[in-house]
Amino acid sequence: MAWYNKISDWVSEKRNPAQHVIRDEEGVNIGSNAVVGYRSAFKKLESVNRGTNLIVSACSSLDYDIKDKISDASPGIRQKSLNNLLNFKPNPHQSAQDFRTNIFTDFILEGNIFIYFDGAYLYHLPAVNVQVYPDPKSYIESYKYNNSVDFKKLDDIKNIIS
């Protein structure tokens, strides 16, 4: 018997004797909305906390290099203001380092970063508290923070900036 036949037999046969019981209890389709305890692992396990903090610290320490616009046809925020927001003072309550630490921690633990721009400053919104509501015609209808505060879509924000 060839080696690839042994591998295919091994792959097609479940090695777990309780597999049929698990399948019967869980069902054929298991949704992807399983609750994963990244936050609790981050708080309780020193190795997870340390590894996450190393990555977040490395990402947070990098400054952004703002390049010239490709075209002046599209209105937007000025280059100097954008550089100041991203590298020095994102808002009156946080330093750039604290702001970046918060957003990169959210990215590592939650997989998303949510930033609110009010036209003058950037504010971090904890990803665990933000719900994204899909739109049947486009991708996103709205964002809600703690099921109470509605945020405008990106297109609406672009109109505020210009």
Task: Provide a quick synopsis of the model.
The protein has a domain at 37-64 and 80-162.
Please tell me about this protein's structure.
The chain has a domain at 37-64 and 80-162. It has helices spanning 3-12, 19-26, 38-44, 46-60, 79-87, 96-110, 154-161; strands spanning 114-117, 122-125, 130-134, 140-145, 149-151. The termini are far apart. Helices cover 44% and strands 14% of the residues. A hairpin with a 5-residue loop joins β3 (130-134) and β4 (140-145). With 162 residues, the chain is α+β, with helices and mostly antiparallel strands. It is built from 7 helices and 5 strands, in the order ααααααβββββα. α3 packs across α4 (46-60) and α4 crosses α6 (96-110).
Task: List its salient traits.
single chain, 162 residues, alpha+beta, three-stranded antiparallel β-sheet, two-stranded antiparallel sheet, 44% helix, 14% strand, globular, disordered C terminus
What is the count of β-strands? 5
Task: Give the uncertain stretches in residue-range form.
Answer: 10-14, 28-34, 157-162
Main sheet: strands, sense, barrel:
3 strands, antiparallel
Principal-axes geometry comes out as globular
Query: Roughly what fraction of the amino acids lie in strands?
Result: 5-15%
Contiguous helical run count: 7
- End-to-end Cα distance, whole Å, is 71 Å
Percent range of helical residues:
40-55%
Strand order of the largest sheet: 3-4-5
The ordered string of helix (H) and strand (E) elements is: HHHHHHEEEEEH
Question: What's the pLDDT, averaged over the residues?
Answer: 74
